[in-house]
TrEMBL record:
Catalytic activity: 2-methyloctadecanoyl-CoA + H2O = 2-methyloctadecanoate + CoA + H(+); 3alpha,7alpha,12alpha-trihydroxy-5beta-cholestan-26-oyl-CoA + H2O = 3alpha,7alpha,12alpha-trihydroxy-5beta-cholestan-26-oate + CoA + H(+); prostaglandin F2alpha-CoA + H2O = prostaglandin F2alpha + CoA + H(+); acetyl-CoA + H2O = acetate + CoA + H(+)
Any one GO cellular component localisation term in the record: peroxisomal matrix
Subunit organization: Homodimer.
Pfam families from the UniProt entry: 4HBT_3, 4HBT_3C
Protein name as it appears in the record: Acyl-coenzyme A thioesterase 8
Matches recorded under Gene3D superfamilies: Acyl-CoA thioesterase, double hotdog domain
Acyl-CoA thioesterase-like C-terminal domain mapped to chain residues: 213-332
Compartment(s): Peroxisome matrix
Family: Belongs to the C/M/P thioester hydrolase family.
Length: 343
């Protein structure tokens, strides 16, 4: 069968326009301040991010109806929640004008996703206003919704009100190791238990389309009780480029669900998760950013109880600008740990 040329109108890379930049500090290197795109780095010329070419590249089936496929499936053998949220935002963004940008989304996960079949995304054009546009998206498998998403888009407006929190002070990503590099270090330890080696090798085999550099690796891998807070640098693998902020917002939605709920377990090294799943997910976009460049992800859990936990996240540009915020509640059922973690 002959290969069919990709239709840019059906690809996430065809999305145009910027996320919210009004009323937020923007660095001189922000995409909106560039008169033309910077040259593509040599390392990236032949490495387009799989998040663009596959994960967030939806197939158009009909008006406001799309189909998404899967790239990476977690060990739980349920679909990754960030993938469903990111794809839902892609579908919603395709139905709004070029002068509207995503500023928030609110999602409920109502059923576990089946990795064996694609996901259909049905968009309802809830409201088209002069300043705000709202879209409702249902992610459907086997004839039933697995996610319900409300996404709101806003026309850029100037405002004298501008403030934000201060970015945490952490080492730059160049001074830290990736998760894969840390795993290789752990595997080189002669006293590492065999079951730990098997688990680490399984992690290495995962083709996760994002890179992570933990700020505090012992905390990241739960070697003792700590406060429910984690910090790590994160970026999409491969090259995405600047200027297309609708695309970067969709990638950020994908990234925002990664390792978020695990923050709830950090104060409890004597327990392991028996079952955990996201219940809902909300996100707000504040400023321009690039998800193929390092961003600091700050995750904090202010509360846990009743087999549920609440986690709040902030994505920071490395120049200190708050790019996006998110909040998630999930169910976390635990069991006693049989032995201390070897990681």
């Amino acid at each position: 069968m002959a290969e069919k040329e990709e239709d840019p109108n059906h690809s996430v890379s065809g999305l145009k326009n910027n996320c919210n930049t009004a009323g937020r500090p923007v660095s001189p290197k922000s995409p909106e301040d560039e008169t033309s795109e910077s040259p593509v780095p040599e390392y990236a010329q032949d490495l387009k991010s799989v998040l663009v070419t596959s994960v967030l590249n939806l197939e158009k089936l009909d008006v406001d109806l799309y189909r998404g496929t899967h790239h990476w499936v977690p060990r739980t053998q349920r679909l990754f929640g960030g993938q469903i949220v990111g794809q839902a935002l892609v579908a919603a963004a395709k139905s709004v004008g070029d002068n509207f940008y995503a500023h928030s989304l609110h999602c409920y996960f109502v059923r576990a996703g089946d990795p064996k079949v694609p996901v259909l995304y049905q968009v309802e054009r809830t409201r088209d206003g002069r300043s705000f546009t709202v879209r409702s998206v249902k992610a459907i498998q086997h004839g039933q919704p697995i996610l319900i998403c409300q996404a709101s888009f806003h026309m850029q407006q100037e405002s004298p009100l501008q403030h934000q929190f201060t970015m945490p002070t952490v080492p730059p990503p160049e001074d830290l190791l990736t998760v894969e590099e840390l795993i290789h270090l752990y595997l080189s330890k002669p006293d590492l238990a065999e079951n730990a080696k098997q688990g680490l090798n399984k992690l290495l085999a995962n083709e996760v389309p994002i890179e992570i550099k933990p700020v505090n690796p012992p905390q990241f891998y739960r070697r003792g009780a700590t406060e429910p807070k984690k910090l790590f640098w994160v970026r999409a693998r491969g090259y995405i480029g600047e200027g297309n902020m609708k695309l970067h917002c969709c990638v950020a939605a994908y990234v925002s669900d990664f390792a978020l709920l695990g923050t709830v377990l950090l104060p409890y090294p004597n327990y392991r998760a028996k079952f955990s799943a996201s219940l809902d997910h909300a996100m707000w976009f504040h400023s321009t950013f690039r998800t193929d460049e390092w961003m600091l992800y700050e995750c904090v859990s202010p509360w846990a109880g009743g087999s549920r936990g609440l986690v709040q996240g902030r994505l920071w540009r490395r120049d200190g600008v708050l790019a996006a915020s998110c909040s998630q509640e999930g169910v976390v059922r635990v069991k006693p740990a049989t032995e201390p973690s070897k990681l």
